[in-house]
């Protein structure tokens, strides 16, 4: 079974997260796929940012939903980078993408782009929200979906199945072999996040995970050889 390595917000350990610079570096590092996050701007653009507010990752303040795309463009997202929109990422890299949506509204906006550009084969869609996973699957036939969880109960595999997800993305620090085996028994893949150390990489291998999300390029290089 191949082990997939996903670049977390590009390679945020070495570049400003969720920027074109970070995504290009992730692709150059050989990541199997690139993970990114989507929020809707005030005027409905698919802004690529993780937090609901711009405070942590830019020189601005306030919620993304209260800013137009033009206002977001004025912000420095690190090393002079600007806040990209999803469509720009599609053009900047050719790698497969895993797009995390934060709410159902973002799911609908993403679905419009995916249908227009026939992206079901290239873009996998993830979310912490079961209803967002269900909605994108309803809107985009054939899309591959991922249910994410940081803390979860005994029903997490059942939740993923009910939402139509093909993959679970779970916090490596809380992941157990029992959950992985239960998921695999139901033909679900399991990805661990965030795998940034050799110890966590060895754990990912020992748990027989299908892949890992990482902040650092070197995890991709050493992951091929870690038993």
From TrEMBL:
InterPro entries: GP_PDE_dom, PLC-like_Pdiesterase_TIM-brl. This is Glycerophosphodiester phosphodiesterase family protein. Residues 3-224 form the GP-PDE domain. It comes from Streptomyces pakalii.
């Amino acid at each position: 079974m191949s082990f997939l390595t996903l670049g977390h917000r590009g390679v945020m350990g070495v570049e400003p997260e969720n920027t074109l610079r970070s995504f290009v570096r992730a692709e150059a590092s050989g990541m199997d796929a690139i993970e990114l996050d989507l929020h809707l701007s005030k005027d409905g653009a698919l802004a690529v940012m993780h937090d609901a507010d711009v405070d942590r990752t830019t020189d601005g303040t306030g919620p993304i939903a209260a800013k137009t795309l033009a206002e977001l463009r004025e912000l420095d997202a690190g090393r002079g980078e600007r806040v990209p929109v999803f469509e720009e990422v599609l053009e900047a890299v050719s790698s497969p993408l895993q797009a995390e949506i934060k709410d159902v509204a973002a799911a609908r906006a993403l679905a419009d782009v995916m249908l227009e550009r026939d992206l079901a084969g290239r873009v996998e869609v993830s979310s912490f929200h079961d209803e967002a996973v269900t909605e994108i699957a309803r809107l985009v036939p054939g899309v591959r979906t991922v249910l994410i969880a940081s803390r979860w109960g005994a029903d997490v595999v059942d939740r993923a199945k009910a939402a139509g997800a093909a993959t679970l993305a779970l916090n490596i620090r809380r992941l157990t072999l029992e959950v992985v085996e239960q998921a695999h028994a139901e033909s679900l893949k399991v990805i661990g996040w965030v795998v940034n150390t050799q110890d966590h990489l060895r754990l990912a291998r020992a748990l027989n995970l299908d892949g890992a999300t990482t902040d650092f390029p070197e995890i991709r290089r050493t992951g091929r050889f870690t038993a």
